[in-house]
Design goal:
Layout lengths: L3 H37 L5 H12 L5 H7 L3
Amino acid sequence: MDTPEEARVEERSSHFTRELGRAVTFLSRSRKRFMNERLRDYGFSGAMYMILLHIERHPGTTQDSIANHMFI
């Protein structure tokens, strides 16, 4: 059986994990929303951003390379 102190530590750890998960989810959604807004003027979506980023980082890349990178 846990001591009262161990129970408090476990509760704080559980709370931290939940809050961290919420923060990561919030940041991910915010980034997606931001990228979609910025790319909309160019006719791109957020999913295309990852492809464009790969092409920018790997000049001369092939479609096969992009497909492998995107797990397609």
